[in-house]
Amino acid sequence: YRRELGQGDVNLVVERASRVQFGEDQMLLHLCLRDFSLDGRGGLRDPRGRTGAHLEAFVNLITFSSQEHDALVGAANQAGLAVEETVFEPMAAAYACLRSEQRRGGVAVLDIGAESADLAVYQGDALLLASSLPLGGVRFTRDVARGLGINLEDAEAVKVQHGCALRGLSGDNSLIEVPSPPGRKPREIPRSELTFILEARAVQLFRRVRRELSRAGLQDGLMGGIVLCGGMARLNGMCDVAELLLNCQANWALPAGVQGWPPALVDPAWSVAAGLAMYAARLKQRQLERPKRGLLSRVIG
Question: Across-strand partners of 51?
Answer without folding.
Answer: 4
